[in-house]
Design a protein that fits this description.
The complex is a heterodimer of chains A (340) and B (186).
Chain A (H helix, E strand, L loop, with lengths): L8 H26 L5 H9 L4 H4 L11 H5 L16 H14 L2 H6 L1 H10 L10 H4 L2 H18 L9 H12 L11 H16 L6 H6 L1 H12 L8 E4 L9 H5 L5 E4 L5 H11 L20 H5 L6 E4 L9 H5 L5 E4 L3
Antiparallel strand pairs in A: 1-4, 2-3
Helix pairs in contact in A: 1-7, 5-13, 7-11
Chain B lengths: L1 H28 L4 E8 L17 E5 L5 H6 L3 E11 L7 E6 L5 E6 L4 E2 L4 E2 L8 E2 L1 E6 L9 E11 L5 E10 L10
Parallel strand pairs in B: 1-3, 2-11
Antiparallel strand pairs in B: 3-8, 3-9, 4-10, 5-9, 6-7, 10-11
Classes of the chains: A mainly alpha (340), B alpha+beta (186).
Chain lengths: 340, 186
């Protein structure tokens, strides 16, 4: 039944688990780098640039803020503030450059505020979650928010600091080290942010990365740079090899940012549709009329035996290079590297 | 294909509109439950208020009725005054101390992000260069239920030169039920 290149699913599952464990480890590294009481980046910045904010402010995540500098991009009168803190250049220069060179690895591997709800969401069965891919046009909403975030100060109040999930991540870390003062003041925007970040767009979102997808300007900027340059063949990105793909849709299922779409090839559509029908649960709606069936619910073998390769796309405007698809693909059809 | 593109454009536009709506909502409560302002020193009159929507007239009126249903439900009596920024607009470096006048009857928690902030003396224990900023936050707890007077607190934030005790800036802060009742800096 299995086609060439298809490894034992258990082997790939182990690799996926190991990948997630590695990512969990790196997120703790991210905590140590950016969040008080450690905040090594801020402390190092203070040592290297005495007299600037990293040297004079409390060393916590706000010193290496990833939101404000992005918001300032459209407000030239605030550019002077960039020079008060060299770390403000991280989200608008360093991270986008890193994303250009290697994809938004920061999002997939180092950002604790993104990882926290993702890993919490793994504790909740998928049947209690909503899938952004089925509900909205993720890319349009993501960059609609990004544009809105950049221009809203011209028409109303800025939503930068009042809806900050990094602050909440810092509050959580601070609470674990005994500092509960930030929790003593309740604000409307703070409550809304917490509920959205942890629950609506976190635990109860398939993949757990709803906040990253829709409401993180820093992530959007990095993905925009990464996506816009993904066609350059010598830049490493997550790449899909159609020749070995079986269309099992494991990648689409496990992708935390819902960046992978699997469409059955025309020749395989009939078989796939038949398979989808037999595996769909009673309460699941059928495909829209005229739309080729997605092979998400299709078992591996149904499409593996068809002659045509399925059409698999990785949306580079969403991908955060977590590499779950690379490690979790049963046929090894994904890799992280340059174009061949 | 056309249909799909139209759907994407629609989501894009609707999302921008939603962000604007949130921005407007944020604007509607910024004179009440979460007041951010900028403050200059040494300065007087309208120059006391720095850049930003709040405080630019040289005084601050906090409307205690401008709170959302969520805030009303959970914590209607605690208000945050957040200085973004407290800026030395003079031409000499200064070490500053802060005082709150008119708030003696209320519980106020002070916070600053500066590493040299002294919680006891409310002093930034280092020289602040011209154009350098610091932030200080105040969390003011009013009695529950909220007082019914139109003018609840008529207070002042005072920036003092810690070395000479010179009053560098006086910034009027009024907690009101009716913004028309705010006497401003007069």
């Amino acid at each position: 039944m299995a086609s060439a290149g298809l490894e034992a699913p258990g082997h790939k599952t182990d690799r996926l688990k190991r990948n997630r464990l590695w990512r969990l480890g790196f997120f703790f590294v991210g905590l140590v780098l950016f969040y008080a009481p450690f905040a090594l980046v801020a402390r190092l910045g203070g040592l290297v640039f005495p007299g600037t904010m990293p040297a004079t402010w409390v060393s916590d995540v706000h010193v290496s803020c990833l939101r404000m500098p992005v918001g300032w991009l459209t407000q030239p009168w605030l550019w002077g503030a960039l020079n008060t803190n060299p770390l403000y250049y991280v989200p608008i220069v360093m991270l986008p450059l890193a994303a250009l060179a290697a994809g938004p690895l920061f999002c997939g591997w180092l950002c604790p505020a993104g990882a926290f709800p993702e890993f919490l969401s793994r504790l909740v069965p998928d049947r209690f979650k909503w899938d952004p891919k089925k509900a909205v046009e993720i890319t349009a909403v993501r960059y609609g928010f990004f544009v809105g975030f950049l221009i809203v100060p011209f028409v109303a109040a800025s939503i930068c600091c009042s809806f900050c999930n990094f602050t909440w991540m810092q509050n959580i870390v601070s609470a674990t080290t005994g500092n509960v003062l930030p929790w003593l003041y309740v604000s409307t925007t703070g409550v809304v942010t917490l509920l959205l970040w942890i629950f609506v767009l976190g635990i109860f979102t398939k993949g757990g990365r709803g906040w990253c997808l829709f409401l993180c300007p820093a992530g959007s900027l990095m993905s925009l740079v990464s996506g816009a340059t993904s066609r350059i063949k010598w830049l490493p990105r997550v790449r899909h090899e159609a020749s070995t793909c079986t269309g099992c849709s494991t990648c689409a299922e496990i992708c935390p940012v819902r960046a992978i779409d699997v469409m059955a090839a025309p020749a395989a559509q009939d078989a796939a549709a038949q398979s989808v029908e037999t595996t769909r649960s009673d309460d699941e709606p059928s495909s829209a009329a005229g739309e080729p069936p997605r092979a998400e619910a299709t078992p591996v073998d149904a499409v593996a035996e068809t002659p045509s390769a399925p059409d698999v796309t990785v949306n580079q405007l969403l991908c955060n290079v977590c590499l779950d698809c690379v490690r979790g693909c049963p046929s090894g059809s994904f890799r992280y590297g340059t174009k061949r | 294909m056309k249909h799909a593109r139209g759907r994407k454009i629609l989501w894009f536009v609707v999302t921008i509109a939603a962000v604007f709506a949130v921005g407007y909502y944020r604007q509607s409560i910024q004179t009440g439950e979460s007041v951010h302002f900028a403050l200059n020193y040494p300065a007087e009159g309208a120059d006391v208020g720095g850049l930003g929507a709040m405080g630019k007239d040289g005084y601050l009126a906090v409307d205690v009725t401008k709170v959302s249903p969520i805030k009303s439900l959970l914590q209607p009596h605690v208000f945050n005054l957040s200085s973004h920024w407290l800026r030395n607009v003079g031409d000499t470096p200064r070490r500053i101390r802060l005082e709150l006048e008119g708030f003696e009857d209320y519980d106020v928690r002070w916070e600053s992000t500066d590493k040299t902030w002294n919680e006891e003396t409310h002093e930034i224990e280092r020289l602040l260069d011209p154009n350098e900023d610091v932030t200080v936050d105040w969390f003011v707890t009013l009695p529950r239920p909220l007082p019914t007077e139109d003018l609840i607190i008529d207070g002042t934030i005072v920036v003092i030169d810690a070395e000479t005790d010179e009053r560098l800036t006086e910034f009027a802060v009024q907690f009101v039920r009716d913004p028309a009742a705010a006497p401003g800096g007069d």
